[in-house]
UniProtKB/TrEMBL annotation:
Pfam families: Dimer_Tnp_hAT (PF05699). GO terms for molecular function: protein dimerization activity. Coiled coil: none annotated. PANTHER family: 52 KDA REPRESSOR OF THE INHIBITOR OF THE PROTEIN KINASE-LIKE PROTEIN-RELATED (PTHR46289), HAT C-TERMINAL DIMERISATION DOMAIN-CONTAINING PROTEIN (PTHR46289:SF17). Transmembrane segments: none annotated. Residues 173-192 are annotated as: Disordered. InterPro entries: HATC_C_dom, IFN-induced_PKR_regulator, RNaseH-like_sf. This is HAT C-terminal dimerisation domain-containing protein. It comes from the Eukaryota. Residues 300-350 form the HAT C-terminal dimerisation domain.
Length: 353
């Protein structure tokens, strides 16, 4: 769910991303909203061997990547189709003309390509996070890998810029240009001029870094380091790197402290005797306790078995978490639009369980 919110933060923060997404949404609706126009558009696709356009999912942001990819792969057919519709002088010609002009701008292609780059990376992680058997430690590593992947994009602008210029030239899109600078009203800052970009590359570098940095900032806000601390403390105890103080304070009378420590020590001794890899994560313990081979350990070390069961109930993903927005649309209907946050939480729990 949080990855949806990360992308939503990008759209809310970066105006150009919001504007481009609005154009693309209108574009897809325009083409697919009429059977006649859709059939007409397919004649242009046949010449380019393009893929079908994919409509935007209204509730799951991370699924928009497939829509963005379909627009990029159909970029030339879309421009030719819109220009053809605009020349017909029909009711839809004005809208087609406006969409054609928008697609002919380098900024549209650049931002579309950049958004696809970011959305695709988060879409991959989002799909992996939807596993019902996902554990918190695994989710932590996935989010860390996603952040590293996005962070690496900060070093890829020269290559991205060169690719964008080459592809735009091949598509016969307008060359990038610097918009006229606008003077800030005197009542705001004394009438001083805004920042002036000396080259188009500087302008688009700033746009590129703005999107990437917004994603990184939102990931840090949505997934703070202390969010993972609980499972880390449990893993440190199971690995023998910490005592039972945290577990005892967290779960109180659910465990007998001395017995829990004894069972932990026995677990580590058993792992050593079997010449198995040292216990480092919760997943290592789960593997030892899993199935028929671990049945005797579950009976021999009930305190550890109970701790593992409790740790595994830490909510990582609510079933298919990306669909929770669709659930919200069903729960909070127009008739229940005045529902407060507390009431919504209660109804959502009933809906989910």
């Amino acid at each position: 769910m949080f990855l949806n919110l990360v992308l939503n933060d990008v759209m809310q923060t970066v105006d150009r991303c919001r504007d481009i997404l609005s154009v693309i949404t209108e574009l897809i609706s325009f083409v697919t909203g009429s059977p006649k126009r859709l059939h007409w558009f397919k004649t242009f696709q046949e010449e380019e061997e393009s893929v079908s356009l994919v409509k935007f999912c209204p509730t799951r942001w991370t699924l928009k990547a497939s829509s963005l990819r379909s627009v990029l792969k159909n970029y030339r057919p879309l421009i030719l189709f819109l220009q053809e519709v605009a020349s017909e002088r029909s009711e839809s010609s004005a809208k087609a003309s406006g969409l054609a002009k928008a697609l002919s701008k380098f900024q549209t292609y650049f931002m579309l390509k950049l958004m696809k780059l970011v959305f695709s990376r988060l879409e991959t992680v989002s799909s992996a996070l939807q596993k019902r058997s996902l554990m918190l430690d695994e989710a932590k590593r996935m989010i860390k890998a996603a952040r590293e992947s996005i962070s690496e994009l900060r070093h890829s602008f020269p290559r991205f810029w060169a690719e964008s210029l080459a592809e735009a030239s091949e598509l016969e899109i307008e060359e990038p240009s610097i918009p006229a600078s606008k003077k800030t009203p005197r009542r705001y800052d004394g009438g001083s001029g805004g920042h002036v970009f000396h080259s188009t590359e500087d302008l688009y570098r700033q746009l590129y870094y703005n999107v990437v940095d917004t994603v990184l900032s939102s990931l840090d806000d949505r997934y703070p380091a202390d969010r993972w601390q609980h499972i880390t403390n449990i893993e440190q105890f199971l690995a023998g790197k910490a005592d039972a103080t945290y577990v005892s304070q967290c779960y109180g009378s659910d465990f007998q402290t001395e017995r829990l420590k004894l069972h932990r020590d026995m677990l580590l001794d058993i792992a050593t005797e079997r010449n198995e890899p040292p216990v480092r994560t919760l997943e290592d313990v789960v593997q030892m306790f899993r199935g028929e081979e671990g049945e005797h350990l579950r009976g021999l070390l009930p305190e550890i078995a109970m701790l593992v069961k409790i740790a595994l109930t830490v909510p990582v993903t609510s079933c298919t978490s990306e669909r929770s927005f669709s659930c919200l649309r069903r729960v909070k209907t127009y008739l229940g639009s005045t529902m407060g946050q507390t009431g919504l939480n209660h109804v959502a729990l009933l809906h989910g369980h």
